[in-house]
Amino acid sequence: MVAEGDLIWEADAARRSAANLTAFLAWLAERGRPFEGYDDLWQWSVDDLEGFWAAIWDYFELISEGEREAVMTAEPMPRTRWFTGTRLNYAEHVLRHEFSGDPDRVMLRHSSELREMASMSWAETGAAVRRLATRLRAMGIGKGDRVVAYMPNLPETVIAMLATTAIGAVWSSAAPEFGAQTVIDRFSQIEPKLIFACNGYRYGGKDYDRIGDLAQIVAALPTAGHLVMFDYLPGAGTEVPFAGETLGWEDMLAGADVAPEAFAYERVASDHPLWVLFSSGTTGLPKPIVHGHHGIVLEHYKSAAFHFELKKGDALFFYSTTGWMVWNTLMWAPMMNGEAVLYDGHPAYPDARLLWQIADAAGATVLGVNPTFLQIVRNQGIVPKDELRFERLDSVMLVGSPATPEVFAWVLEAVKANAWPTSQSGGTEFCSGILAGSPLLPARAGEIQARGLGTDAQAFDEAGNPVIGEVGELVIRKPMPSMPLFFWGDADFARYTSSYFEDFPGVWAHGDRVRFTDHGGALVLGRSDATLNRFGVRIGSAEIYRTVETIDGIADSLIICVEDGAGGYYMPLFVELAEGVALDEAMVGEIRRRLRSERSPRHVPDEIVAAPAIPHTLTGKKMEVPVRKMFLGAPMEQVAGKGATKNPEALEWFAARAAGWAG
Question: Cβ neighbours of residue 142 under 8 Å, at least 6 residues apart?
């Protein structure tokens, strides 16, 4: 029986010697900066942020123009800017290895429920990006224009993203499983000029025609003058009412190839937007998080090389949709001259062998999966190593939610005995990791190995003091290059500041509960706020309320998501009903249908419960965090005072309900 903190894996001498970080340490030592292993290097990386990030820039030989003014400016978070005076382009770095070897070697391996496993070479991908980027320019799309996609996880979407960012336009994507209003809530904030969209997709063996939702979406985006339709789902509609120009995907790629020497990437300043990712909160519309080319390139090289151990020729396979930041990190592999593996479809259809079969067939060296998914695999009695060889698999990354000690041990027992099992934790806000791993460190059951390089992560108690061995709030005390430049439309940083800097002024509060160990490891214990973690993807309660509270008969609602103690989650929705209304099967079905169609399958709760009333603060705010804490075992008197509650009797009902669930 494995226990939390048990040592379960260490790299052998050959693997340590060949590690990317070993080469970086030698490179630093040659330049007069010797360090004794990971911990010593991490301390320098946060003590001397300028020295560390300048070393990352130089070591990876970033392609840029202009004269460097400052590695980092003196402004505090969130106004810090990096490598001012220089200009670079993200897509240029992803595609820089097109001719670093045989151009016909594989860059993208891909499959879906509609496509068998296939591949695209570096030459094919690069040529498609240049053709599409040139066509976008000819259509008047250029630097700073927003381009959005309602597309699956396919090579076409990767090509569209790289072409968009290659010309300095700003990218944003949403998965086609998202309902119309969820997409409108996102894209309407950034006023796109062009939309890429598919007509449907297949998931779990079922076909989903999205033409109806797409019609609603484009009608709500009046700034869009161009719609590019990708005919993906056979038999689905292809005609969408649209006032602007409608083109087919094939039309956009028609014409002669554009020679590499005839194509110019738009190199941009360090404050220029790269893409907009969305993270939902408990109130208001989803936060439109803007990242820059410089910060993402720096952070992604660091993470790909030193925390994921990706090398030339390696293959990275993460199960993801285009609505999750993990999709954006799949380009870590090409940045390291390797391969990205894409899959669009249900991860466990027809059964939970599927992702393992894809990983084996694609020759994945790094496999990223959610611990909740591994619970499904275990429950189905599947032992992947008994059926597959995993000849190239080096590591299994447990991402998206906390992993139990048993899951760590299961990876070694059931997948591959010498695979590096590592859990890492980050966020949409950084499009990267905060707590990370390294093959130079031992792996312990249930623990994340270390803080990420250049990341001054700490656990703060309520007074704002760092603590070790105690549960605290995960904070970051110093700037990181991939922190958001700003939120779109938030010119005075008001929403940005209120989202992350209110609890501890001048310090980023991430919203996770964490405990650091004496030996430098970390255990993430779930969200400290009311944001919902659904199968590894964070969604906002506000999205659910905007649908549920428009249903006739529902007066109020509250949703929480709590860890179940076995690596999974329990997400109940509590509804306060109008007088004379009962929560019958018809209403439950309507709630589930509306959430699935207007939002996404992830927004559908595990249980819908009628509550006599929803507790609110004296200022009218739903008491999501206190209710969640009670379901995690905290007594009512510790999480909320009756004097601060508008309707104390409602809180008492939830306290009794929480005690029954915990019991």
Answer: 167, 168, 169, 266
At 556, which CATH number? 3.30.300.30
Does residue 511 form part of some domain? no
Q: Decide if 653 is inside a domain.
A: yes
Range of the domain at 548: 532-662
pLDDT, residue 521, reads: 95
Element (H, E) at 648: helix 648-662
Return phi, psi of residue 142, to 5°: -150, -160
Q: Is residue 570 part of a domain?
A: yes
Cα 447 to Cα 434: distance, rounded to the nearest angstrom: 14
Whole-number Cα distances in Å, 569 to 445, 510, 553, 646 = 20, 20, 28, 29
What pLDDT, in 10s, does the model give residues 574-588?
999 988 899 999 999
pLDDT for 378: 81
What is the DSSP code (8-state) at residue 307? I
Is residue 580 included in any domain, yes or no? yes
In the chain, the number of structural domains is: 1
Residues 6+ apart with CB under 8 A from 491: none
Q: Is the dihedral of CA 283, 286, 292, 297 positive or negative?
A: positive
**Does pTM top 0.85 for this prediction?**
yes
CA atoms within 13 A on the CB side of 44: 15
